[in-house]
């Protein structure tokens, strides 16, 4: 059973049995007729402890279901949270009497599944999201400077470096000199 909220001007009116109730705003607007609906309102009421069960029983006997919640305040006294469709003003007698009951929509017959696209049809979905469909732009690589092409490729001209026999991508350096000068 789903929640249905009564159409009323105040929470006290919502607690009275026999009022019309709606689940959605669209349904509430159709039931209210020309009376504008302000909002789905929640008001807090503090009835006497003895009256709580009678109020709930009376309110739930109508069309509206599940619109009342019971809480306790700091003193342990009951507090009711009443949720209802707040009307701008009381519906006129004619509008209230002629409020149509919402017709339950007939379930639509199950439609046949959509046929799959043929292989000849082109899917342009990627065109909506990407400039170049189905391709990723590669970065433009910088051209190597021809003066630096020989860096770290072969042993130095003076013979201080040679390739490691166990790892051909590594150059081993033979230390020469006292280390106070570069290359000397």
What tags apply to this protein structure?
single chain; 184 residues; alpha+beta; five-stranded mixed β-sheet; two-stranded antiparallel sheet; 7 strands
Strand content: 15-25%
The radius of gyration is: 41 Å
* Biggest sheet record: 5 strands, mixed
**Count of separate DSSP helical elements:** 5
Structural features, described:
This protein has 184 residues and is an alpha+beta fold. It has a domain at 5-97. The chain is built from 5 helices and 7 strands. It has helices spanning 11-15, 25-32, 52-60, 93-97, 125-129; strands at residues 5-8, 21-22, 37-45, 68-72, 78-87, 161-163, 171-173. Strands 1, 2, 3, 4 and 5 form a 5-stranded mixed beta sheet that branches. A two-stranded antiparallel ribbon has the order 6-7. A hairpin with a 5-residue loop joins strand 4 and strand 5 (78-87). The chain is elongated. The protein starts with a strand and ends in an 11-residue tail after the last strand.
């Amino acid at each position: 059973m789903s929640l249905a909220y009564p159409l009323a001007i105040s929470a006290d009116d919502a607690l009275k049995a026999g009022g019309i109730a709606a689940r959605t705003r669209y349904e509430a607007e159709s039931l209210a007729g020309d009376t504008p609906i302000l909002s789905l309102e929640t008001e807090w009421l503090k009835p006497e402890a003895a009256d709580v069960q009678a109020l709930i029983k009376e309110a739930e006997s109508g069309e509206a279901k599940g619109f009342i919640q019971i809480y306790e305040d700091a003193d342990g006294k009951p507090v009711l949270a009443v949720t209802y469709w707040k009307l701008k003003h009381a519906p006129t007698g004619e509008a209230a009497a002629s409020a149509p009951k919402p017709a339950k929509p007939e379930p639509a017959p199950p439609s046949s599944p959509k046929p799959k696209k043929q292989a000849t049809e082109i899917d342009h979905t990627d065109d909506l999201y990407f400039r170049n469909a189905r391709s990723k732009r590669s970065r433009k690589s910088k051209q190597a400077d021809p003066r630096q092409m020989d860096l770290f490729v072969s042993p130095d001209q003076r013979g201080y470096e040679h390739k490691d026999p166990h790892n051909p991508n590594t150059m081993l350096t033979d230390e020469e000199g006292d280390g106070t000068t570069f290359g000397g």
